[in-house]
Design brief:
The protein is mainly alpha-helical. The protein has 24 helices and no strands. It has a domain at 292-540. It has helices spanning 2-13, 27-35, 39-52, 56-72, 76-89, 92-99, 102-109, 111-121, 132-145, 149-156, 166-179, 183-196, 208-215, 219-249, 253-261, 268-283, 287-294, 308-320, 324-351, 358-369, 377-386, 389-414, 425-483, 490-493.
Length: 540
């Protein structure tokens, strides 16, 4: 992936001379235009100067001015190219200037895209104290991905607690600590992450981010701000979920129960953790509570959710109660609904070459733009990962690129004396840079969708196989019941009849056949175990 990104940069660099036909201006004019708020003009003049000099320090500083000017003009996707080029030229003064924007670009382009450039071309001492957290977060994520857990822990610990990136560093710290068996520390960091997740929305007074919020109103800016808030809520939910997992693994089941209950039901994270919660009750042989939690997925409010393991666990719970007819119904319905989906996913992966990520990104975009409660099964399958903040930010970045192309044409037309049109001069170069940016977005997003599809398809195939084994098990039990004498084994009859323990903060209500959003996840069945009885029977 990295080779393709660098190749794209090299191709754009080689095209500089094709667009370099504008007259050179005095460097003072850049500052004058920038100071008067003519940011696009300042960027154009600085680009001209970069194009006409062979001096690395002069070119680097000119690129730095282009970067900051484009950001202030609301063209951050265009500015990203010049930000990276400035770092690549390795001039210390110019790097220091643009690295003030590192937290902003990490927000707009994502840590996964930016981290390689920051790690390869910068050092911690080149950043100001305010911006240095971006470098440490990039290092922590890179080390965590490579399995260097002590290194990841060390880098994450260096993120400034006052930085908006601090909650993300706490999540990385907790993950690294879990991998190092530092359970107590992991629990504390996940708890702190959940408490401070909303801090990710805080923007420092006087910062470039604060000025941009005031200077760049519009639909896309509002969507980006809404996405940032959603990402903060998602991070909080994930950190609470990690708390619950740590507590469960430590055997603190009641505390884990309470932690799971703290995850907002409006969160996408909750739809996965409800299933985890059901597994914990299954492990305690509270099969009626397990079924109660799983039936919540049948609620109209959760029809968008896709998790093939839900049906597997539901069938297992019925089997544990020896309710073979009910288990059989779940298995038949599962095979009918999801057998063809498994074939469709397999066919899509086989048809689309692994080297071309664009079809996967396009598929993910279609699913994201479809209504949440879609009737298209493939889109429901994709819902589980394309509605994550990560993929949504990539999709929105592509929208921003298209909006910037239109904005560049408008800005170019404002000054007839320097107008070149979209295929020449500075606007032509920016359009080439934006085409490169689209390729990087589609590459990252497509690889994410493809890998997620393959992973979830493997789970789906595994679940189909589990269902077949359970079907054989049911047939075996039915045969046994027909063959055995009517004398039931009394001790067997109690299996699965364990009464769920009710906490002091929980109430008991009867189910009247209606789903209410504030009740889903809290239902408990009242089925009697058929284990030990002489013949199979259906539940009423």
């Amino acid at each position: 992936m990295r080779m393709r990104i660098f190749l794209g940069l090299a191709l754009i660099q080689g095209s500089v001379l094709l667009f370099g036909g504008e007259a050179r201006a005095n460097y003072v004019d850049v500052k004058r235009a920038f100071g008067s708020g003519q940011y696009f003009t300042a960027a154009r003049i600085a680009f001209n100067d970069a194009n006409r000099t062979s001096s690395v320090p002069e070119k680097s500083m000119a690129y730095a001015w282009v970067t900051e000017s484009l950001v202030r003009a609301g063209l951050d996707q265009s500015a990203l190219y010049f930000f990276i080029r400035t770092l690549q030229l390795q001039d210390r003064a110019a790097s220091r200037k643009v690295l003030e924007l590192a937290p902003l670009f990490m927000d707009r382009a994502g840590t996964d895209f930016l981290k390689k450039f920051l790690i390869r071309y910068t050092r911690a001492d080149e950043y100001s104290p305010r911006a240095r957290s971006a470098f440490h977060l990039a290092m922590a994520k890179d080390k965590l991905g490579s399995g260097d857990y002590p290194g990841a822990l060390q880098s994450a610990s260096m993120v400034d607690p006052s930085s908006p990136l601090y909650p993300l560093s706490l999540q990385l710290k907790g993950t690294a600590e879990l991998m190092l068996d530092q359970t107590r520390e992991a629990l504390m960091d996940f708890e702190a992450c959940a408490e401070k997740a909303e801090q990710r929305n805080l923007i420092e007074a006087g910062s470039i981010e604060e000025r941009l919020k005031k200077e760049q109103p519009g639909a896309l800016a509002e969507k980006w701000e809404a996405l940032r808030k959603d990402a903060a809520r998602d991070l909080k939910a994930r950190c609470v979920a990690n708390q619950a997992r740590v507590l469960y693994e430590a055997g603190q089941f009641e505390e884990a129960d309470r932690a799971y209950d703290m995850i907002p039901k409006a969160s996408f994270v909750w739809t996965d953790t409800l299933f985890e919660h059901a597994w914990s009750t299954f492990a305690k042989e509270e099969y009626n509570r397990t079924l109660g939690k799983l039936v919540s997925y049948k609620s109209p409010a959760l029809q968008f959710s896709f998790n093939s393991e839900v049906d597997v666990l539901m069938a297992q719970a019925y089997l544990s109660l020896c309710l073979y007819t009910d288990a059989g119904r779940i298995i038949e319905d599962f095979n009918r609904r999801l057998g063809s989906l498994a074939l469709d996913v397999k066919k899509f992966v086989e048809v689309n070459a692994a080297k071309d990520a664009r079809p996967y990104f396009a598929l993910g975009r279609r699913a994201l733009q479809d209504k949440l409660h879609t009737e298209i099964v493939m889109h429901r399958f994709l819902n589980r990962f394309v509605r994550s903040p990560y993929f949504q930010s990539l999709s929105l970045s592509q929208d921003r690129v298209l909006a910037e192309k239109i904005a560049i044409q408008r800005l170019d037309a404002i000054r007839p004396e320097t107008r070149t049109g979209p295929a020449a001069g500075f606007p032509g170069f920016l359009n080439a840079a934006l085409d490169w940016r689209v390729r990087t977005i589609q590459l990252l997003g497509g690889v994410f969708v493809r890998n997620s599809m393959i992973d979830h398809h493997q789970v789906l195939i595994s679940d189909l196989e589990k269902m077949q084994f359970m079907k054989i098990d049911i047939l075996s039990h039915e045969k046994e019941k027909l063959m055995q004498p009517e004398t039931a084994v009394a001790s067997e009859r109690n299996r699965g009849n364990r009464i769920p323990v009710r906490r002091d903060d929980q109430l008991l209500w009867s189910f009247n056949g209606e789903f209410w959003n504030d009740e889903i996840g809290d239902y408990v069945f009242a089925l009697e175990s058929e284990c030990g009885k002489g013949s199979a029977s259906e539940t009423p």
